[in-house]
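ok trying this again, last paste got cut off
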Amino acid sequence: MEGRSQAKIIENRGIKLTKPYVVVGVPDVGLVGLIASSFMIEHANMQEVGYVESESLPQVVMVHGSVPLPPVRLYASGDGKLVILLSEIPLPPRSSYEVASELESWALDKSAEAVIGLSGLPSSERLESDSDSKPKVFGISNNDLMIKEVGKYGVQPFEEGMITGTYATLINKGRLLGVNNLLLLAESYPEFPDPSAAASVVGVLNSMLGIKLDLKPLIEESEEIRLKMRDMMRRTQMTASQVGSPPSAYA
């Protein structure tokens, strides 16, 4: 397809998808997208089906269980109806643009139902509230019907503010290519990993996609997850400060 970016999605052989929903989780505010996507991959028993290759990506290899893995990978459910793009590294601006652009073109090729971004929304109310309270989820979409649909699950419209980075590119490219896009934003701690915010967006996807994941492990293991994700949060903040990047979304 003409106009595709320098990034390229490399698929494993035999990948079979059926008009999938494509979920995107990258490190940003509260690591909401990363935590939520990692949880879904593990608890929905999703399998790696590909990865993203780009010269602009940092030269990093992730190691899990002594196995080297690319830092930006794709996973799919057994029925081929759900795909998750997971980035285990903060994406610099050029990489962010290329990866998001390539994903939208790939989603179009696969006749995806929608591309769904998961992110955090820095919230003073979240800082001041009880840490056990359920964070609110806001949504923005290029499809009015999709916003009405997720409204049934308690998602409030994101009415005023700014979207930046990976998720902004997803929305812009999706609009140009005619791919349905939805961004779910959970109220989040701006500087700390926030598993409760991640649980809120997974809860919406449970209802929207009928995946019915048990959220108890994500909530009960929140302190362990926070400790595990501290280094990633520092790297994410360092990348943002080096390039002068604002949060992915703010009101």
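PB: full thing came through this time. Helices lie at 32-43, 93-109, 124-128, 144-151, 165-177, 195-209, 216-220, 222-243.
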